[in-house]
Amino acid sequence: MASQEPVLSVEHLAIKAGDTSLVKNISFQIQPGEIFTLVGESGSGKSLTSLAIMRLLPEALDITGGQIVLNDESLFLLPEVKMQRVRGQQVAMIFQEPMTSLNPVMKVGDQVAEALKVHLKMNRQAARKKVISLFEEVGIPDPEARYDWYPHQLSGGQKQRVMIAMALACEPDLLIADEPTTALDVTIQAQVLELLKRLRDERGLAILFITHDMGVVNEMADRVAVMKQGELVEQADKAHFFAKPTHPYTQKLLADAVPKLTYKPISEARSLLRISDLKVHFPIKKGIFQRTVGYVKAVDGVNLAINRGETLALVGESGSGKSTIGQAILRLVDATFGEVEFHTESEIVDLLPLNERHMKPFRKRVQVIFQDPFSALNPRMQIRDIIREGMNSLKVGPKTPAEQDARIDELLEQVGLLPEHKFRYPHEFSGGQRQRIGIARALAVEPELIICDEPTSALDVSVRAQVLELLNRLQQQYHMSYLFITHDLSIIPAIAHQVAVMKEGRIVEQGPVEDIMLNPQHDYTRKLLDSAPELIKQAFNRPPEAPAL
């Protein structure tokens, strides 16, 4: 930040869709070597601002005011031919979801090499050598071999590293990182953030880092700007921003971001579900005859217990087997071995040997809330039909359409929506509202256990806080149990009574939340906690508040 000439100046930028203002008169500058974080909820205009810088806005949107200056050159005045050279060479972008940003049928090395051939006119051999060097720089193991891999062969963290290598290929002055760690585990997130900071230091790179995660902001930022409904409501350097936030919206974002350590007392020990020595092994088949040559041990001898009215948080990195356990309970995958015992008022039933006819009564007792609220709802059905479907198929609740509509109205109000919302389609709702609809659908069949599979990972911090509060309230109201699957350590004290930590198909540690969070015994648990952003770790080290009575 020695130079006084900014790499990027955004001056009075305004964007409209028809008569609707989406970005309103925003201005900021980014200096060389500076990490400038743009913070706000989904729909606040963060990503639109980044797309305007790249001149990649959809045709339906119009820039109605302002200018963007990159290295003393106004981008809005450039013809498209020149702008194509600016993209990649002077400014590059890392997108949120690496899997959808990479071509699935093209080797990852060739995808990075393509940028070098187009912008720097390198030949094939020189481009390959440069890509391998970039892969090494961003920490991809065995870079020569990985050059010839396809995206599906890489982990989420490795795919994101490929995207970073692609963005850095032509040595740009400005890197735009649009929510680059949202879908990553806490350990992988820590590695990617450390990588970006190292590259900034080594290359003098200016970074526009877009996020809604205040822990990440605290970890990365030199300066912070907060967006709300298309406007910049606050700008400050990091120290001042966290010490003395001035705008009420900023204060709310910070309050929602820091976990509230109010551990829940364990009220009773009546068992609802008990898992014993559960194993789910997927066969590895090879050759023309597809012979089984080995097994992937997704779940390998797991024992868990969930009590009535309590929440068990199942924590671990992607690929550890958390979601497979949820699927095995729901009988969506076949378990290789073990028992999943459901405790009714009169008997104990092992769910695994049941055929579909005998399993059906337990479908209403065990429901699920999925991670992605966008793909979990049928886009062609109105909300009332989505909720009604489970009631009809499992024969739960009122039978006549009028009585069912009244019940749907009641469910929508319970999850914080309006009765008239039942006539809408899923695309008419925000991500948080869709997740509430998913919760209403699960509640419609009056379950005793809900499997929550990463239900808040795609949500902003304020929306996440609302969904957690809603789940807690519904648990108290209906005395339900939750299996809460997550990789986000910060939300565990707000939702769980017990925690089980999972690694490579096995449970390595379990116990009450307070014991696990404040006094972890296993090295892997300590590694997960150490990888959390500093803002979250500081909260973990505070004494917990007394639980609300």
UniProtKB/TrEMBL annotation:
InterPro entries registered for this protein in UniProt: AAA+_ATPase (IPR003593), ABC_transp_ATP-bind (IPR050319), ABC_transporter-like_ATP-bd (IPR003439), ABC_transporter-like_CS (IPR017871), Oligopep_ABC_C (IPR013563), P-loop_NTPase (IPR027417)
The record's section on CDD domains has: ABC_NikE_OppD_transporters
Task: Note the Pfam families from the entry.
Answer: ABC_tran, oligo_HPY
Q: What's in the keyword line of the UniProt record? A: ATP-binding, Nucleotide-binding, Transport
Name any Gene Ontology BP term: transmembrane transport
Q: Which residues form the ABC transporter domain?
A: 8-254, 273-529
Q: Name one GO molecular function term.
A: ATP hydrolysis activity
Report the PANTHER family cross-referenced here: D,D-DIPEPTIDE TRANSPORT ATP-BINDING PROTEIN DDPF-RELATED, TRANSPORT ATP-BINDING PROTEIN
User: Into which family does the record put it?
Assistant: Belongs to the ABC transporter superfamily.
| NCBIfam families hit by this protein | PRK10419.1, PRK11308.1
Q: What is this protein called?
A: ABC transporter ATP-binding protein
